[in-house]
Design brief:
Blueprint (H helix, E strand, L loop, with lengths): L4 H4 L3 E6 L1 H14 L4 E5 L5 E2 L2 E2 L13 E5 L2 H14 L4 E3 L13 H13 L4 E2 L6 E3 L4 E3 L12 E6 L2 H8 L7 E6 L8 H8 L5 E8 L5 H13 L4 E5 L4 H11 L6 H11 L2 E2 L3 H13 L8 E5 L2 H10 L12 H11 L9 E2 L8 H8 L9 E5 L11 H14 L3 E5 L7 H9 L3 E4 L1 H13 L16 E5 L1 H9 L8 E4 L4 H4 L7 E5 L11 E5 L4 H6 L6 E5 L6 E10 L3 E8 L4 H4 L2 E5 L4 H10 L3 H4 L10 H17 L4 E11 L4 E3 L2 E6 L7
Parallel strand pairs: 1-2, 1-5, 5-6, 6-7, 10-11, 10-12, 12-13, 13-14, 15-16, 15-17, 17-18, 18-19
Antiparallel strand pairs: 3-4, 8-9, 8-11, 20-30, 21-24, 22-23, 22-24, 25-26, 25-28, 26-27, 28-29, 28-30
Length: about 675
Amino acid sequence: MRKLRRLFAAQSIAVIGGGAWCASIIGAAQRIGYQGEIVPVHPSGKEIAGIASLSSLDAWQGPLDAAFIGVNRHATLDVVADLAERGAGGAICFASGFSEAKAEDQTGEDLQGMLVRNADDMPILGPNCYGFVNALDRVAIWPDQHGMKPVDRGVAILTQSSNIAINMTMQKRGLPIAYMVTCGNQAQTSQADIALELLDDERVTALGLHIEGFGDVMRWHHVALKAAKKNIPVVVMKVGISEQAQSAAISHTASLAGSDAGAQALIDRLGFGRAYDLPVFLETLKLLHMVGHLDHPTLSSISCSGGEASLASDTAVGRNLTFPPLTQDQTVALGDALGPMVALANPLDYHTYVWRDTEAMTKAWAPMAADHIGLTLIIVDYPHTDARDWVCATQAAINVHNRTGRPIAVVATLPELLPEDVTSELIKGGVVPLFGLSEAIAAADIAANIREPAIQPPLPGGTITAETILTEAEAKFALSSQDLDLPRRVEGSAEELLDLARNLVPPLALKGLGLAHKSDVGAVRLNLQADQLLDAALAMPTDWFLVEEMVTDGVAELLIGVTRDPAHGLILTLGAGGVLTELLQDSVSLLMPITEENVYVALTKLKAGKLLKGFRGKPAASQPAIVAAVMAVQAYVTRNHETLDELEINPLICTPTRAVAVDALIRKAGPDAANV
């Protein structure tokens, strides 16, 4: 991996290009307190922002740790080659018109390839990117305004969008941003490469990623393992849920956005948290910076309004968080502090009997911050007219943190009602200021549910040409080698069926082979006796058939599906099966390979999971049998992952003792796929 430390801590920077860009970069560097040398390079040799420029790089004899290249894309190629030959520490390529523009200009991708070759071993960011601001070492190579200030420690944020990066630097939420790095097209140096470098900086407390496409999944696996080893939590804001967003990602930075189900499966496997908007992204990073991973997925809420208490409770619905009932110790302590006039519960409406009495407020709030509570939310909205009467709340929150040692957050239900001076005071006191109640609870959900990454790397995805679709009989034969539970069956022509099926136990299912969507063309008949097979077969639009014993004691029907996601890998989907699969939309997706424990957990997330446990007096399905079926599918996929494009079992009929694959589809690459 190319070393980026010299670039990020550069003490000599060449700025090559227009005077306006050079002036902006000088201003951005001064704003962060940069003390190194800035060398403007301009053909005129004019003075720029008080610094005399050089007419060419040849006039500079000293070392160059970094360069900002602000010339057109064709000229950029020559400059990069020159810098690499001089042994420069790295470069930011500002110009656009490379691979992100290939839809409009086919030469863009070729130019990007030339750029990478010219750079050789010299690290480059971009092209089509703004550069970075390093607030730890006070280095900025940034051609615009930014709102960052020097910090001693903080979070690192990596983004593919320079404009989003600018906006995040302007936040006034009390989040200390240590690094803001834009990545552009990632022609040579990827976000994962940058993340691996920044994880070595002990001053980085959390990592935030705005991602349009993951790219090298194995590289991200290394990031996840390294982050876990160093106990640095990672939060992702992955775009591309909508079709419009996926199109934008492809045209914007030439990233392969892939399916969102695949992206979520990868994020889960890597152990990263996921935010879906910028406010939650920033609030989560702030919470992780100050508190780290929450040790329990539980909340307490404290407010002086029943409406706020209800709002807090409602906001947590659907999340992996709870407001646990008060314990006996909490009830006794709260009763002693608040008296008999306050109804004690979590969330707590403490009324305003103790307002302005800081010690009484502290005594009333502290019991809510018990050891079994992951985060205590103290809801306080500070008026922007005159907030002097709210000083007691600020101090009481700090006191509660000091006395209990537990994570405490002051939350403004409206983000604009948490002033900057109060934010600073809370942070100094170890209390997390969170902007917006819904944002606070979303951030707590992420911080409480970040998990360890899977140790085993994912199976690679990539694109293949699937030339062969196995018949149902062929697919079942292939899967039978992995001990998947299948119905007893025979196949043959219409005239042979009666003789072939004589040892099968009715009721029987008859299926016409070689047809897509058999049910739609009348090629499936159920509940047949052996003497009904011939007439049923002659009515079907095919001449080859499969006869099976029907499974009659099913409790529920599931689907097991595997698809090849080019961007993320092989995705296993477990969901409600049968004819209503698409209507129910009840599924969980996992990136393969998976463990038996993963399958058990996935079953608990399905709405159909209630059927599996026994619903309204019906027997429960055998979950070990279901897990065994999924693992049998995985064994087949692992053996054939280089050629497999798609696999589906629907339905998997789940009984109290079995999990039987009643229908199967396999699509593979290669002319001999049916023989594998």
